[in-house]
Amino acid sequence: MKYSKEQIEQELKKLKGWKIKKKEIWREFRFGNFSESIEFVDEVAKLAEKYYHHPDILIKYDAVQLNLTTHDEGGLTEKDFNLAKHINKLVRE
Known about the structure:
There is one protein chain. The protein is α+β, with helices and mostly antiparallel strands and 93 residues long. The chain has three helices and four strands. The protein has a four-stranded antiparallel sheet, with helices on one face. α2 crosses α3. The longest helix has 18 residues.
């Protein structure tokens, strides 16, 4: 079920670094080099398969931008915030 604006705001408070952009949440992760960026993307891909929810991924040399939305619902759902929470666990902050 698609989240309301209020639900989205509450969920975003729980997620470090993620921001809202239209019907998506997104975050950019920075790394030391291209190899580290690719290693991170490989780990994100494993999570995406595990949770059957796949982000849009933009790889820049030392940065990876992830965008999450639930296309079937036309907006943000529990799936998006759940995957974002697990992705955050992949990085040391």
